[in-house]
């Protein structure tokens, strides 16, 4: 069985990953280059991608238990 999560839950997970791994205050567009574009180290991007992958794995295995 697949566990379906809401868009709000997805947004919350992505926002948490962005804050913890990419050090971004928000994922909302703020219509300002200095606020919407960021320099990120490759190891931060890798960490964020790994966290997103893990969140996806957890969302599918929760429904199997």
Concise structural overview:
By secondary structure, the chain is an all-alpha fold.
In percent terms, what proportion of residues is strand?
under 5%
| Multimerization status | single chain
- Write down the Rg: 14 Å
Q: List segments where confidence is low: pLDDT < 50 over at least 5 consecutive residues.
A: none
Largest sheet: none
The helix-strand sequence is HHH
Could you characterize what this model shows?
By secondary structure, the protein is mostly helical. The chain has one domain. Helices cover 60% and strands 0% of the residues. Helix 1 runs antiparallel to helix 3.
Layout of SSEs?
Layout: H1 7-21, H2 33-36, H3 42-61
Helix pairs in contact: 1-3
Feature tags:
60% helix; flat; 65 residues
